[in-house]
Amino acid sequence: MRDTSIEMEQRFRSMILTRSGEDRLKMGCSMHETAQALVIASLKEKAPHLTREDLRRALFLRFYGGEFDKKTSEKILATLTKAG
User: Fold this and answer.
1) Whole-number Å distance between alpha carbons of 34 and 26
2) What gap in Å lies between CA 16 and CA 19, rounded to an integer?
3) How is the chain split into domains, by residue range?
4) 3-state secondary structure of 3
5) Distance in angstroms (rounded) separating the CA atoms of residues 58 and 39
6) Over the stretch 6-53, which tens digit does the pLDDT of each residue have?
């Protein structure tokens, strides 16, 4: 779905690129932190009694679950369980 004109996309990109690398990094980190907070709130609403380990695994699956093959995902999930 494209709801933004090409001209506006180019203008936005140009505006972002005028910022320093540090500012762009801070913006990205802030956006990730906000997205993570929204996902955590959603997970807790659906399952209020999630343990810290369950939450870590659910966050991984929500953000990165489709990025890895099953074997790799299982290995990461096992590591997250041990790290908790």
Assistant:
1) 12
2) 6
3) 1-49, 50-84
4) coil
5) 9
6) 999 999 999 999 999 999 999 999 999 999 999 999 999 999 999 999
